[in-house]
Design brief:
alpha+beta; single chain; 4 helices; about 60 residues
Length: about 60
């Protein structure tokens, strides 16, 4: 079974990945969107939250 990253690259399609394992999701992502209470809490290139884990914590928990 192809990984989401391989599928996106080979088929030239967008893949929406809903994942609780943030490290795995960010490693495969170009962009990241974090929803908190049905609202966008964080949106942008996946490299930013990969580099700064506090961004993710703030987006999820509001602290």
């Amino acid at each position: 079974m192809p990984t989401p990253r391989n599928l996106a690259d080979k088929a030239n399609v967008a893949v929406v990945l809903v994942e609780q394992y943030i490290d795995q999701a960010l490693s495969a992502a170009d962009d990241a969107v974090v929803l908190r209470h049905s609202r966008v809490a964080l949106s942008g290139p996946a490299a930013a939250p990969r580099a700064d884990r506090q961004q993710i914590q703030h987006a999820y928990f509001g602290r």
